[in-house]
Write a structure and sequence with these properties.
Layout (H helix, E strand, L loop, with lengths): L7 H4 L7 H8 L12 H20 L3 H14 L3 E2 L14 E6 L3 E6 L9 E7 L4 E12 L2 E9 L12 E8 L5 E6 L19 H4 L14 E4 L17 H14 L10 E6 L4 E3 L5 E4 L2 H18 L11 E7 L16 H13 L5 H9 L2 E4 L3 E2 L21 E4 L3 E2 L10 H13 L4 E3 L9 E2 L3 H6 L3 E6 L1 E2 L7 E4 H17 L2
Parallel strand pairs: 1-2, 4-13, 4-14, 14-20, 15-21, 16-18
Antiparallel strand pairs: 2-3, 3-13, 5-6, 5-10, 6-9, 7-8, 7-10, 11-12, 12-22, 16-20, 17-19
């Protein structure tokens, strides 16, 4: 291959071009996305964020989030795939979804080109770090009732002490009927907390590493302090664990719960505070669970807007799909996680319902022809903790979608890496639609790292790129995002669904 020569006049800003013109042509210049919004777009950005905050407040667990998404899909004319009549066929423009055990959601719109020709996919996750109960959690110590816990996902233990917590969960009764339970979200509800050590007695604690301030077994939730009594003084003095008994009696009266029911139940504790505007300018959202419900919300609404009004919109060119998975925060394991066959099975069902002859080879071809954005958040550059970031490749607040070519730790272990051809394809789609994107590596090389559901999609042969919203205080009880990044993500995801070929 002949070598290309570089004109020194051009490179040095000499006779042929001015340095500023050359800089604009050759260098990346990131501006705040707020400056690119018209007055109408700024209003829509705020409205989108207001709807998002309501979504966060009503969907603090993966079950609640999946139910909210299913309701929005049905309102937009999507039909539960598992309720279709026998021998029903799908055609261009048909809208279907599936709830996977109430914890994951898959939704698709059949395109002019059927699923076997490949799909445009948005994948996010709807689980978040939290505090779960153990199977036999309720105990009494020193006339206080506690709930024994096992945390879920990567958390800093000390961040979950001395804040108000709400109970969200599900109990299955002896007849097999589920009973949703929520305590701590409505005005007048009691809340719960994990106690912390007062600074007057914390000299030894403060000398420890932050990871040792409180261990996992120390994250027990304070649940009560009043002993059971039938009203006659001295009558109940010989009963053991009267505070525990009083708590159980209250639960039984309200929900029919006995101690045995905890074993099969799914009880989660999450921060009790609500999603809020943040800052004097209200430009940010502060809330629990924005990793990854911010991207999930943007992805779902990109699908809904691309689909258009039910019975009126033209079908998309390619079949489009939104996958909102569970269990990402613990490795995507389990039958509701991205490593399960649920995603692959859904696509296989779409192929079978649109093709006269559908075999395993056709499904594999459909996967290999598909393109996906793994819609997951990234760490926003935080000047307060600048030592762990590489500023050149970090994502910044208010500057758009963060494209992460690769994930993983250290030498890219445990992650996924997008092919150059696909990365460029996504860049061009965003550029053509005036959607600002930025780099998105997760910190300095040896400072940490992480993974997403991208690796599981890539294992199926799908072209995939991580593409999400920058977040401050990720995995804390109160994460922060920019409203304009949320809106930009929605626009970028919509452009991808419409235009990726």
């Amino acid at each position: 291959m002949p070598k290309k020569t570089i004109s020194t006049d051009a490179a040095e800003g000499g006779k042929k071009t001015k340095g500023k013109t050359l800089q604009e042509k050759l260098c990346i210049s990131l501006k705040t996305c707020w400056d690119g919004l018209s007055a109408e777009e700024a209003r829509r950005c705020q409205d989108f964020a207001d709807d998002y905050k309501r979504f966060l407040d009503r969907g603090k667990t993966e079950r609640e989030c999946a139910a909210l998404c299913a309701a929005r899909l049905e309102k937009a004319g999507f039909v539960n795939l598992d309720t279709l009549p026998p021998k029903k066929r799908l055609g261009a423009g048909d809208r279907v979804y599936r709830s996977v055990r109430g914890k994951s959601i898959l939704a698709a719109v059949i395109g002019k080109a059927p699923p076997a020709r490949g799909l445009n996919i948005l994948g996010a996750h709807i689980d978040s770090p939290r505090i779960d109960l153990k199977t036999n959690p309720l105990y009494e110590d020193s006339d206080l009732a506690f709930l024994d816990t096992h945390y879920y996902g990567g958390i800093k233990h000390y961040q979950w002490t001395a804040i108000p917590l709400a109970l969200h969960g599900l109990i299955i009764d002896k007849a097999g009927k589920p009973h949703p339970i929520t305590v701590g979200e409505e005005p007048g509800d009691p809340v719960f907390t994990i106690t912390d050590l007062l600074p007057h007695l914390a000299r030894d604690q403060m000398a420890k590493k932050a990871s040792e301030f409180i261990d996992g077994e120390g994250l027990d939730i304070l649940a009560g302090s009043r002993p059971f009594s039938e009203g006659d003084r001295g009558k109940d003095d010989k009963l053991k664990d009267r505070v525990k008994l009083f708590c159980l009696n209250l639960l039984h009266d309200a929900y029919g719960i006995t101690e045995e029911d905890f074993a099969s139940g799914e009880i989660e504790f999450v921060p009790a505070f609500r999603a809020s505007d943040l800052g004097f300018d209200r430009s940010m959202v502060g809330a629990y669970g924005q990793d990854d419900r911010s991207c999930a919300f943007a992805a779902l609404h990109a699908l809904l807007e691309t689909a258009g009004p039910a019975k009126k919109a033209a079908p998309p060119a390619r079949t489009i799909l939104c996958y909102l998975s569970d269990k990402e925060e613990i490795g995507s394991m389990g039958n509701t996680g991205a490593e399960s066959r649920a995603f692959e099975n859904f696509i296989a069902d779409l192929c079978e319902l649109t093709e006269s002859d559908c075999g395993p080879r056709l499904v594999r071809d459909a996967l290999a022809r598909s393109a996906m954005l793994s819609a997951d958040v990234n760490a926003a550059y935080d000047p307060t903790h600048s030592d762990v970031f590489d500023k050149k490749t970090s994502s910044f607040f208010g500057k758009g979608l963060a494209l992460s070519k690769f994930t993983g730790r250290g030498g890219k272990y445990g992650g996924s890496e997008a092919n150059a051809e696909f990365y460029r394809r996504v860049q061009l789609i965003l550029n053509d639609n005036k959607v600002q994107w930025q780099f998105g590596e997760l910190g300095k090389v040896d400072k940490g790292g992480g993974g997403t559901i991208a690796q599981h999609a890539a294992n199926l042969g799908i072209e995939v790129l991580d593409c999400g919203i920058p977040v401050l205080s990720m995995h804390s009880p109160f994460e922060v995002i920019s409203k304009v990044d949320l809106y930009t993500a929605f626009r970028g995801y919509k452009a991808f669904l419409q235009e990726c070929r």
